[in-house]
TrEMBL record:
Keyword flag Coiled coil: yes
Species whose genome carries this gene: Exobacillus caeni
Record-linked PANTHER family: MEMBRANE-ASSOCIATED PROTEIN VIPP1, CHLOROPLASTIC, PHAGE SHOCK PROTEIN A
Keyword Translocase: no
Protein name: PspA/IM30 family protein
């Protein structure tokens, strides 16, 4: 007899966390477990096929032996009808021998049939367990992928708001403030220079107005 999934049945019953603790890739390990189970099933199918073939062979030998028993009895009857008692006796003697062989073959056939039936049941159990494990594998695989994704997200988020990130933001903020201060200072300098030029320009304009005002007074005879 073979054991159900001798290589992987105990491992497949372990939880996902146990696999992670062993620093193994759960998805790859689960796929390997399924391949091992498939190999066990193929091995079991081969064993079942051989046992069924043995069962059929013994059944045929038993049937042939039983047929020969019936044949020898019919021959004995025919010999008696022909008045050949010696031939009838020889036929009955062989019939008895064939009966002993038939009984032996029957026992062997029944054992082979029982073994074949048992192996078939075991194979069906293996296939049922394989399908259950396949469903569990798909579930564990999804959980493993989800856990990996969460881990990546958590690691990425853990960097947000960290001391290093805060210091980096502070440095950038200082640079921005410095840029703003420089821009404001340059604007003040530009405004200062522009005001001085404007005063001189305004001074020139005032002279022109004074001249024009004097000319107007002269025309009006007020000067």
């Amino acid at each position: 007899m073979f054991k159900l999934f001798k290589r992987v049945s105990t491992v497949m019953s372990s939880e996902l966390n146990a696999l992670i603790d062993k620093a193994e890739d759960p998805v790859k390990m689960l796929e390997q477990f399924m391949r091992d189970m498939e190999a066990d099933i193929r091995e079991a199918e081969t064993a079942v096929a051989k046992q069924i073939a043995n069962e059929k062979m013994l059944k045929k030998k038993y049937d042939d032996s039983q047929g020969l028993v019936q044949k020898r009895e019919a021959q004995a009857i025919k010999a008696l009808e022909a008045g050949d008692e010696s031939l009838a006796r020889r036929a009955l003697e062989d019939k008895k021998e064939q009966q002993r062989q038939a009984e032996t073959l029957k026992e062997a056939y029944e054992r082979a049939k029982a073994d074949a039936d048992s192996l078939r049941n075991k194979l069906n159990e293996m296939k049922d367990e394989y399908h259950q494990m396949k469903l569990k594998k798909d579930s564990l695989k999804a959980r493993a992928e989800s856990a990996k994704t969460k881990t990546k997200i958590n690691r990425a988020m853990s960097g947000i708001g960290s001391d290093e990130s805060k210091k980096g933001f502070e440095r950038m903020e200082e640079k921005v403030l410095r840029y703003e201060a420089e821009a404001e200072t340059s604007e003040d300098l530009r405004s200062s220079n522009r005001s001085l030029d404007d005063e001189f320009e305004a001074l020139g304009k005032n002279d022109e107005i004074d001249d024009e005002l004097a000319e107007l007074k002269k025309k009006m005879g007020k000067e």
